[in-house]
């Protein structure tokens, strides 16, 4: 039996229509199980003349790679010498810009050459004379599969007209094909439920794979038909089924609610599918699309040693236009634009997790916002780009190279400063969120850093417990919040800001209801006056003026002013969270010219207050993977010695194969 290369799993997440499917198809199209059209990443390498493929396998086209670099280096030397000779006097500004542009492109080419050195470790995923070992799987396909299992057992969903007829038709086709396949019959698989019960078993003859191929094909067809017949409502239906599975284990919501147990049920099913395909030798490099729940991400991290989580970002307007374009193509321009926009906003809101109010709902509902925070690598997809674009190729080649050979690429300055900001963030004792910020001057030296925490001499919320309050250790604070701490355990910490918001907003709402005498408010007054606390809780209001802490951006700016020096005018601030409106005004007033952030701030519109300042979403390696991807296992000198002697542990450079399975 052939030795399989290491099992690698890349998970994808991002807001609705951000481009996850586009990125996934760069590795393998989920509809091309036979893989006859190949891998687009490899195609791009060959098309660029960087890699050669023949009957003996893959090799880097070093002659062409080095020529490209030599040409660019010569161009760079020419522009430097032309300035020395005084040939471009009077054009100094244009010269400096062109010099920087050429040097930046030279740096990209040199980095690409280093990434190409990892090709021997990538080549085993393209076995000679066989299909490649990449496979794209979708969590939404698992949701449909689980729904078909329930329908096959006689259950009905709440979408009896939209989904159930399509489901019954798919089951009929699947089980008809099962009955005609002798190999499948050897496993005694007659129904889709039989397959689900057998999926975890060893399958040396590949019969389970044959069954899965049949199911996968019909599931993909069902989703296409569902999109056509519901005019874009298919995502909402699958969202509901997925949330139900994570809540009670049943896509139709007919089970017992046990979210703490069922929240990873879909992830467990996907794990079984991945293991089945890997053990059969069909694939070793998996891309799992549509990860929408943070508990599923954490489960994958525990189960797959080489799991990397990638988030895709695109602004809402761009995503909406992509959705409308896709619907018009699918429905032959027979699309109600206004209805499609409403459906998009509804799906996007459910996707983001903003509709989850209770802690239980947060366990089983989709929450892309939290998933993005957990990602290892972020990619910006800000244009209407296709998977053939060079921008995507460069980013994916870099990621794959770093996974296969940590340290094969060096962190860019944005990655260095952002991960320094995250190092600041973990110092925070805030119980709501930990934020860090770093300010880099125009010459790229650090001139300020900070995290969100209380002023010197004060005790943070994360170190102050209800027990302390009851002992009146912090008596001024206790007098303010003593009516709010009864629902907490004595060893719990609490957020002073949230408690004060409930108290103060409750007072204002009560006063407003008491003052109004208008007839139209009478019903509201009588019905809700006794439920003001519940109203405030549901409104989820946060008033920053009650926060005891300074924000990370404030602390970074203050540090720069306390230490003194060159000042922060014209600098760039890197922050792990998009600045709130209060910090946005301070950033503008201080003269900072650029803000780079990772996660969006809830209910914040900082761009209103930062006119004239560049506001940029961070892109690159994030802290959970920073050391893992950039810290080499061995120094380059040691690696080169092992390659020369062909004594790399676990890998044979001459045959280009792994010597033992690592998956």
Secondary-structure blueprint of this entry?
Layout lengths: L7 E6 L6 H8 L12 H8 L3 E4 L2 E4 L1 H23 L7 H25 L2 H4 L11 E5 H14 L11 H17 L1 H5 L5 H7 L8 H24 L3 H15 L10 H4 L2 H16 L4 E5 L4 H10 L3 E7 L2 H15 L6 H16 L6 H6 L3 H6 L3 E4 L9 H15 L8 H13 L10 E5 L5 E6 L1 E2 L11 H5 L4 H7 L14 H20 L3 H10 L3 H8 L9 E2 L1 H12 L8 E6 L3 H10 L3 E6 L14 E4 L2 E2 L1 H8 L5 H10 L5 E2 L4 E2 L5
Explain what this protein looks like in three dimensions.
With 663 residues, this protein is α/β, with parallel strands linked by helices. 51% of the residues lie in helices and 11% in strands. The chain contains 29 helices and 17 strands. The strands form five sheets. A six-stranded mixed sheet has the order 4-5-1-6-7-15, with helices on both faces. A five-stranded mixed sheet has the order 9-8-12-13-14, sandwiched between helices. Strand 2 (51-54) and strand 3 form a beta hairpin. Helix 6 (139-152) crosses helix 11, helix 13 runs parallel beside helix 14 and helix 15 packs across helix 16. The two termini are 15 Å apart. The relative contact order is 0.10.
The spatial strand order of the largest sheet comes to: 4-5-1-6-7-15
| Strand content bin | 5-15%
End-to-end span in angstroms? 15 Å
Give the strand tally: 17
- Main beta sheet, described? 6 strands, mixed
Number of helices: 29
Tell me the overall shape: globular
Could you tell me the mean pLDDT? 85
Evaluate the radius of gyration: 28 Å
Helix/strand/pairing category? alpha/beta
Q: What level of helicity do the residues show?
A: 40-55%
Low-confidence stretches: none
């Amino acid at each position: 039996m052939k030795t399989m290369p290491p099992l690698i799993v890349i998970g994808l997440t991002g807001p609705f229509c951000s481009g996850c499917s586009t990125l996934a198809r760069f590795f393998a199209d989920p509809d091309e199980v036979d893989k006859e059209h190949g891998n687009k990443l490899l195609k791009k390498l060959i098309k660029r003349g960087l890699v050669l493929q023949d009957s003996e396998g893959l090799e880097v086209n070093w002659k062409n790679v080095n020529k490209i670099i030599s040409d660019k280096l010569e161009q760079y030397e020419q522009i430097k010498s032309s300035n020395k000779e005084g040939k471009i006097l009077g054009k100094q500004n244009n010269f400096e810009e062109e010099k920087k542009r050429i040097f930046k492109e030279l740096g990209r080419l040199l980095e690409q050459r280093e990434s190409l050195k990892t090709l021997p470790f990538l080549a085993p995923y393209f076995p000679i004379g066989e299909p490649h070992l990449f496979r794209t799987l979708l969590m939404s396909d698992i949701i449909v599969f689980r729904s078909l299992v329930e329908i096959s057992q006689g259950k009905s969903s709440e979408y009896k007209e939209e989904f159930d007829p399509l489901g019954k038709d798919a089951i009929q086709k699947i089980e008809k094909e099962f009955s005609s396949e002798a190999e499948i019959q050897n496993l005694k698989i007659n129904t889709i439920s039989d397959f689900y019960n057998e999926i975890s078993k060893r399958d040396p003859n590949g019969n389970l794979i044959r069954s899965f191929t049949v199911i996968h094909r019909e599931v993909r067809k069902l989703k296409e038909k569902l999109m056509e017949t519901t005019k874009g409502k298919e995502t909402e239906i699958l969202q509901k089924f997925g949330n139900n599975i994570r809540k009670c284990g049943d896509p139709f919501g007919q089970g017992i609610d046990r979210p703490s147990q069922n929240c990873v049920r879909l992830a467990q099913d996907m794990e079984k599918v991945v293991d089945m395909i890997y053990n059969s030798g069909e694939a070793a490099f998996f891309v799992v699309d549509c990860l929408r729940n943070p508990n599923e991400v954490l489960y994958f991290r525990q189960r797959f040693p080489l799991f990397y989580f990638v988030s895709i970002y695109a602004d809402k307007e761009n995503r909406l236009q992509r959705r409308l374009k896709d619907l018009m193509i699918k429905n032959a321009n027979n699309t109600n634009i206004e209805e499609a926009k409403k459906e998009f906003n509804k799906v996007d809101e459910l996707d983001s997790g903003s509709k989850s109010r209770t802690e239980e709902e947060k366990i089983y509902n989709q929450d892309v916002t939290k998933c993005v925070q957990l990602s290892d690598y972020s990619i910006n997809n800000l244009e209407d780009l296709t998977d053939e674009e060079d921008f995507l190729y460069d980013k994916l080649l870099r990621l794959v190279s770093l996974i296969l050979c940590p340290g094969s690429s060096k962190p860019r300055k944005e990655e260095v400063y952002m991960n320094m900001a995250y190092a600041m963030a973990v110092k925070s004792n805030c119980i709501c969120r930990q934020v860090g910020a770093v300010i880099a001057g125009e010459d790229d030296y650090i001139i300020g850093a900070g995290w969100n925490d209380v002023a010197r001499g004060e005790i943070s919320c994360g170190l102050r417990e209800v027990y302390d309050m009851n002992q009146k250790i912090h008596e001024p604070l206790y007098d303010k919040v003593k009516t709010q701490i009864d629902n907490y355990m004595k060893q719990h910490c609490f957020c002073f800001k949230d408690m004060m918001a409930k108290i103060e907003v409750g007072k204002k709402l009560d006063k407003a209801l008491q003052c109004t005498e208008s007839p139209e408010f009478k019903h509201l007054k009588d019905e809700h006056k006794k439920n003001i606390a519940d109203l405030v809780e549901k409104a989820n209001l946060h008033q920053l003026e009650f926060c005891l802490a300074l924000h990370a951006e404030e602390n970074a700016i203050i540090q720069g002013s306390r230490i003194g020096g060159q000042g922060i005018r014209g600098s760039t601030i890197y922050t792990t969270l998009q600045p709130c409106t209060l910090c946005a005004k301070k950033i503008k007033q201080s003269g900072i010219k650029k803000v780079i952030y990772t996660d969006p701030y809830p209910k914040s519109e900082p761009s209103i207050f930062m006119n004239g300042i560049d506001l940029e979403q961070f892109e690159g390696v994030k802290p959970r993977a920073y050391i893992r991807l950039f810290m080499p296992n061995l120094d380059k000198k040691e690696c080169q010695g092992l390659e020369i002697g062909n004594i790399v542990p676990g890998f044979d450079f001459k045959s280009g194969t792994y010597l033992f399975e690592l998956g």
